[in-house]
């Protein structure tokens, strides 16, 4: 089928001089694009609740010998709770800024828990 120029048709492959397949653009295509963008935003938003705590757990577990298991649990739970609190308390705060604040708070929380409850010497 020859390519048709104009808004009604969208080229699927090839460049301007090459033969192309074409299909009509539809309202469903626009809805599909919008719903994909909304799904990506939704996934990004809610994985961002856990990501700062997970990063804190890995960083402290790899680079700080005083890190303890209760500190890892506190960082994971604190990350989720603080993310929810900031999301609803400051809804205008950009996503990445919120993740930075939550990361720093979870890092401080994990460090405090590790220092208050040091690891026992009977670990295997």
Based on the model shown, name its key terms.
124 residues; two-stranded antiparallel sheet; mainly alpha; 2 strands; 5% strand
What does this structure look like?
It contains 4 helices and 2 strands. The chain is elongated. The protein has a domain at 51-116. A two-stranded antiparallel sheet has the order 1-2. By secondary structure, the protein is mostly helical.
Structure at a glance:
With 124 residues, the chain is mainly alpha-helical.
| Proportion of helical residues | 55-70%
Could you tell me the strand content as a percent range?
Answer: under 5%
Widest sheet: strand order? 1-2
Q: Quick check: average pLDDT?
A: 80
What is the helix tally? 4
Task: Please describe the biggest sheet, giving its number of strands, its sense, and whether it closes into a barrel.
Answer: 2 strands, antiparallel
- Quantity of strands, as a count: 2
Shape: elongated
* Secondary-structure element order, N to C: EEHHHH
Unreliable stretches covering 5 or more consecutive residues: none
First-last Cα distance: 70 Å
Radius of gyration from the alpha-carbon trace, in angstroms: 24 Å
Structural class assignment: mainly alpha
Architecture blueprint of SSEs:
Elements: E1 9-11, E2 22-24, H1 27-47, H2 51-63, H3 69-89, H4 95-116
Antiparallel strand pairs: 1-2
């Amino acid at each position: 089928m020859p390519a048709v120029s104009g808004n009604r048709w969208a080229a699927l492959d090839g460049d301007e001089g090459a033969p192309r397949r074409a299909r009509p653009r539809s309202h469903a295509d626009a809805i599909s694009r919008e719903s994909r963008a909304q799904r990506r935003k939704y996934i990004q938003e809610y994985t961002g609740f856990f990501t700062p705590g997970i990063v804190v757990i890995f960083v402290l577990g790899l680079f700080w010998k005083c890190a303890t298991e209760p500190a890892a649990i506190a960082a994971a739970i604190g990350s989720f709770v603080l993310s929810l609190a900031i999301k609803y308390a400051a809804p205008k705060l950009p996503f990445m800024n919120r993740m930075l604040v939550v990361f720093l708070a979870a890092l401080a929380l994990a460090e405090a828990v590790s220092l208050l409850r040091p690891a026992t010497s009977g670990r295997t």
